[in-house]
Amino acid sequence: MKEKGRPQGKKKARGLFIVFEGIDGSGKSTQVERLARRLRRRGLEVVTLREPTQGKWGRKIRELSRTSGSVTPEEELELFIRDRRENVVKNIRPALEAGKTIILDRYYFSTLAYQGARGLSLEEIRRRHRKFAVVPDLVFILDVPVSTGLRRIKDRPIIYGHFEEKEYLKKVRKIFLSFRDPQCLVVDGRPAAAAIHRKVWSLLVKKFPELK
Hints:
The chain is an alpha/beta fold. Helices cover 48% and strands 12% of the residues.
């Protein structure tokens, strides 16, 4: 029996919800676009999103995060939750209910990892998200050593200053690798983008063979 909310021929059902996670420089954005193109070629209507969003709260997060110490961990968490709640209401739920597939670059797993690394309770962060967040069907955690991630982003403008510090990112990576949620799959983010995509695709069709 097929699960509710998965692609099932012509039947209108809730769309598939896929998330990519990992530290900066792990290759999330590249894999989001590669997977979106492949699914579109198979006739799916795909929406790509990212967090923080371009909305009011997302802009506030970027503004404050450029400088270390400009916001407390608790204030930072509140901003992420407000931004995510708005994203769920305005974008994620409507698209899924319309049968569209969503591929999201960062979600509440990033909040668990990044704000958890700042000392906040992972269980409290999860509890607050359980009130409103849509649980994704699959979460690909692209894992790279911190040195690799930092090398890849060294020429980018600094957007999230205190999120790009080496010792802090080591804590973030450790939390990402600690997740035991059934939908979380760790994928080596060190190979070439094409090889990572092949691995992502093989894991996706293993769970949802109707996508072949």
